[in-house]
Design goal:
Aconitase, domain 4; elongated; seven-stranded mixed barrel; alpha/beta; 7 helices; 9 strands; single chain; 257 residues
């Protein structure tokens, strides 16, 4: 017969670890400066998103009308891109590159309203942003399904996408868009998805933005005609404050001050 094994249930000297891997924050962190190499490709300090300017959105460009399933991996791919999770501008180079363009059935090839060429989604978004304008993303059912990837909301926001209008959202992605100060809207009539043409511009009546109230979107077509339709949203009063402040973090900082 073997002897019954013996041993210590816990270390007799306690958990004597030289480096606990945790540094408690100082009581007053106002003087703490986080230094990041400006040439780093993997780390970048986040800049607060700009608050709402109080105006209706007018003339926003169509960035992409996605077709079929558009998961968070279509919006922000994983794999080698995860090396840039700490660098919002670099990881934004994967923004919507997996989404299928409804007008040509291709991924990462969309019409650029500024030069008439077909180019990658992030490139077009950056050009629209550099011109001081906004863009809009259109999608179908359960847009943003999959893992709750925060970058799938942060990247479009960083690239000046102001609104995402879809037939329906995956719940977590919808909330993530709200937290980043974006408009997450759904077609009141899903058939209105078919009204969107490749060279459209968008007006969104933000003076109608209130809990439980529909908003009006007007799309202007290349031939000079236009269509207006209603969109729904699920913002409560507090979440509308996120939008007005530019993001949920902006509002928390403002309230703390």
């Amino acid at each position: 017969m073997l002897d019954e094994p013996t041993g210590y249930e816990l270390p007799p000297l306690g958990f004597d670890v030289k480096d606990r891997g945790y540094l408690a924050p100082v009581e007053d962190g106002s003087g703490v400066e986080v230094i990041v190499d400006p040439n780093s490709k993997r780390l970048q300090l986040l800049e607060p998103f700009a608050p709402w300017d109080g105006k209706n959105i007018t003339g926003a460009k169509l960035l992409i009308k996605t077709k079929g399933k558009c998961t968070t991996d279509h919006i922000s791919m994983a794999g080698p891109w995860l090396a840039y999770r700490g660098h919002l501008d670099n990881i934004s180079n994967n923004c919507l590159i997996g989404a299928i363009n409804a007008f040509n059935d291709k991924a990462d090839e969309v019409y650029n309203p500024l030069n008439g060429a077909y180019e990658s989604v992030p490139k077009v978004a950056r050009m629209i942003k550099a011109a001081g304008e906004y863009s809009v993303v259109i999608g179908e059912e359960n847009y943003g399904e999959g893992s709750s990837r925060e970058h799938a909301a942060m990247e479009p926001r960083h690239l000046a996408v102001r609104a995402v209008i879809v037939k329906s959202f995956a719940r977590i992605h919808e909330t993530n868009l709200k937290k980043q100060g974006m408009l997450a809207l759904t077609f009141a009539n899903t058939a209105d998805y078919d009204l969107i043409q490749e060279k459209d511009t968008f007006d969104i009546a933000l003076d109608e933005f209130a809990p439980g109230q529909q908003m009006t979107v007007t799309v202007h077509h290349e031939d000079g005609t236009s269509n207006s339709f209603k969109v729904n949203h699920t913002y409560n009063a507090s979440q509308i404050e996120w939008f007005e402040a530019g993001s949920a973090l902006n509002l928390i900082k403002k309230q703390a001050e």
